[in-house]
Design a protein that fits this description.
two-stranded parallel sheet, globular
Length: 111
């Protein structure tokens, strides 16, 4: 298995010594563990009768100061809210950027 990235989001946000050790062995180096501070909770709401709760969850976490978003493109409702997620973020003065830019990676490619 080959991973060519400097960043890794652990499944479910669960990070521990065993996971870090296995990951470093798999990729041959120590990647930067990256977790989120904004969860749209698509795993909870996307396939329910109230998928719009994703917007509420997004706004809640942004209001708390969150800035790194986790969402899954697997759910059509989540994808349909992407424009609104962006509008909410921009309305709070946040700038959209890639993870490598957020981490101020000197090797990040230009936009």
């Amino acid at each position: 298995f080959n991973i060519d990235t400097s960043y890794f989001r652990p499944p479910f946000g669960t990070e521990g010594a065993r996971m870090r050790s296995r990951l470093a062995k798999a990729v041959g180096r120590k990647p930067t563990i990256t977790n989120w501070s904004v969860d749209v909770e698509d795993w909870l709401w996307a396939e329910t009768d109230t998928p719009e709760q994703q917007l509420t969850a997004f706004q809640r976490d942004v209001n708390k100061g969150g800035s790194l978003v986790v969402l899954h493109y697997l759910y059509p409702s989540t994808v349909s809210y992407l424009r609104q997620f962006i509008q909410i973020a921009k309305a709070t003065g946040k700038q959209l950027m890639r993870v490598d830019q957020c981490m101020m990676d000197p090797n990040a490619p230009a936009l």
